[in-house]
Every structure is written in C-alpha cells, then in structure tokens.
Amino acid sequence: MAEEVVLRFNDVTFEYIEKKPVIEDASFSLRKSSKYTLMGQNGAGKSTIFKLITEEITPKSGKVSIDSKATVGTAKQMVNRDDFDMSVEDYFARKFEPVPGSLKSKISKVLEAVNMDIPFEKKVGDLSGGQQARLLLAEALIVEPDILLLDEPTNNLDQEGIDHLLSFLIMYDKTVLVISHDADFLNCFTEGVVYLDIHSQQTEIYVGDYYSVVEEISQRIEREQRKNAQLQKQIKDRKEKANYFSHKGGKMRKLAQKMKEETSDLEDSIVDVKREDKEIRDFFIPVQEDLVGNIVEIRSVKVIKNHEPVEVEMEKDITKSMHVIIKGPNGIGKSTFLRSLVAGKSEEAHIKEGIRMGYYSQDFTNLDLDQKVYDSLQDAMFDREDDQELRSTAAGFLLTGNFMGSKIRELSEGQKGLLSFARLSLMKPGILILDEPTNHINFRHLPIIAKAINEFAGPVIMVSHMSEFISTLRIDDEIDLGK
Question: In the chain, at which end, N or C, are there fewer CB atoms within 10 A of the end residue's CB?
Fold first, then answer.
C-alpha cells in the first residue's frame, strides 16, 4: 500500500503584487515521515511556501491540502524583535489557549530535546544567537507537530548544537521540510529536494541525498543547454535557407514556406532551461585610509558562566590588518562582546576613536527595516554620493533596480545579508566586525565572500560557527572565550 500523503500543493499560485507571481502552478506532495529540503535561490519564495503551509497567507489559485489530523510547527529563522522583552516562559505560553497547567513540564521537555538549560524567567533578548536558534526549534516542537518546518535551523549553532539537532532529526519520526544553506547538514538526514525555481516560479521534486540531487540538477542544466544550442544552430540554418529560397520563384517559395514551418516546430522544441542560482560578483571592501597603531585594545572581557556575566582579564591589542576569530560555545558571550565593542560601552575593550566600523549583525538589528534599500546603501557611503557606483555595487549582490524602492523588511533574510555586504563594500570601513556572516547566505556565495574578507587590508574581528568557511579564511589570532 502506498504511503499516506500528509501535505500536497496542487497548481498553487501566489503573488504579493498583482501579475507578479512569487510561485505559479506549484505542485508537489510529501509523505508522512519523509524529510525533504526546500531549495531555491535567495528570494525565490521558500518562506512563502512555509507561510502557505501555515495558512498565514492563502493562494491566489490552486489548493494547499494538509491531512485533517496533522498539526504544523514552524521554527523560524530569527526571533521577532518585539519578543525580546518576553520571559522564556511567556514566550512558550502564547502557543496555547488556554495555557495548560503542565506548561513548565512541556517547556522542560522541549528544552531538553534541543539541549538547552536556561532559567524560565530569562528575557528572550538576553539569550545568545545560538540559544535563540534552539529556542525557535523548541517553540516549534512544543505543539508536537506532525509536519515540522525548519527555516535555517543551523544558523548561530555551534558544532555541538548542530550535532544534537542532527541526532534529533534523524530519530524524529514525523514529516520534516527544511530550508538551509548548510549542505553537509542537509546531506545527513534529508531524502529529497523540493526545488523552487526563481525564474519559472514552479516547483520540482527530486529524490536522493542532497549532494546527489544538486549534481543531478547541474547535469540536467548542462544537457538542456547543449540541446538548446543544437536547436538554435538548426533554427538559424533553416531561417537563412528559408530567406534565400523565398526570393526565388515557383517551387523554391513552397520549399521556403515548408522550412519556415519546420523552424517554428524547432522553436517550440526549445527547452525552458532551469537557470542555476546566480552567484554574486567578486567584490572588494576598501579600507579607511591612514590606519596606524592599535585599532582595538582589550584589557578584559565578560563571559557568561552559569547564566551570569563574569569579568575576565586579558591583554590583547589588534593592529591594522590583523584578522581575529572569537571562539567559544553557544551562550558564552561572543555576540555580546562584539555588540559591546560596536556600541563603545566598555573602557576595557574599545575601538580607537575615529575608526569607521563595518558591522555585520547576525540578526540585522543594525539595519532600519523600514528604510528603503536605496537609502540604506546611500547612508553607507557617508559623505559622498555616486548613484552609478551605488547601483552597480547593489547589482553585484543581486539587488537590482526593482529592489531599490523596497523597504528592507520586504527582503528575504538572504537578501538582507547581501545588502549588508553591499553596505560594507560602499562604506570603506576601518575595521570589519562580522557576527555570523554566513547566516542566511547561499553556499554558492561563500567562496566570494571569503575572498573579500581575506583581501580586506584592515583588521577583522569575527564570530562564525561554520568551520568549513573559517578554514578558507586568513586567521592571524584567536580569542577563545570558552577558555
């Protein structure tokens, strides 16, 4: 007997703007207990698929069908800023109406499942990025979902957290659909791919481990491109001959007409080739001029032990062109340290006065979400205006003209990440402070980003849990808060 389908899309079309569909006639289905990747370029509409499943939005046409007995849980990419002042207990309580008497027991159970031990009264905004990532997964699990939707679940997780999540998902006996740019993570537990093509706005389903599917898609593109090249050559040849014979008399004109009909048939045979995800262009981050001496001086840092901050003395000076990695487990205080540096809150760890800071925030809190993309890029240019440079730089990060008038909140998380790098490129910073710069970024872009960081002539201070990415970087020193 065939395995039961728990989720089905039938010719689903959705658009935010009239006559500009995000997805069009999308069709796919998932069986109970299956585990699939939702794959597609930044901005293709992956998060829209999730919103259709959770009924936050409804299709313009077509139908999304979910098993009547199935519940859905979603682990989003990031905690909403409006929730930062809530306690952990209140954060979970809002999932229930009415709130059950066993809430604390339920919270303990899901926190144990995601390998996290935190006080229930702790503010959500006081959690580290890695702890917030685990909180989002726990929030999805507390409703015991039959369909689990995961949006970039490895963002901010250290290796221990990723390993624990993998073990959980492998053992999880219900349906999982996951968006992630972590190829190694996906390859470990998913059994297929729902591919969302940004150009056709349609979905296709592939069966197999992640790397095999990516290779299959790549080979298919090559085959289609070769076939189209052959067809284009035949079409050109027939058009030239048809044009030549059409100027002749009698039977030659009939032959020309026949060739035109054959040409039309060949044009109909051209395959609509799936276009691979575009890569961003190579880019360069110019450095602020006249950097001399110690750019950063650190005499102590705060680390979190048993949920309390502890001041630890240290001697560390960061000079021009030094690239430093901040290490330590989730919750130790890495992002807090970077935020403190940027805000200039500590005399014991500070950046030299007059240094222009290029800050990549893991949760994009340094971006004004209500600002338009063009204005955000213009602000990054400080005291100069160059419309051509601005638009050319943005286009290199796949932010073309149609994005310029959009508010930042309307961008996908991946596009916000690319906007952040575009701003750094325009800024000419005196220091780069990068907090999880691979979050939300398509893996195809990472070698290009790594190259730009390596070539930056100023100091770099960075937090990243992606060991594969770090291995491609020039690192001169490290600060291990865990030690």
Answer: N
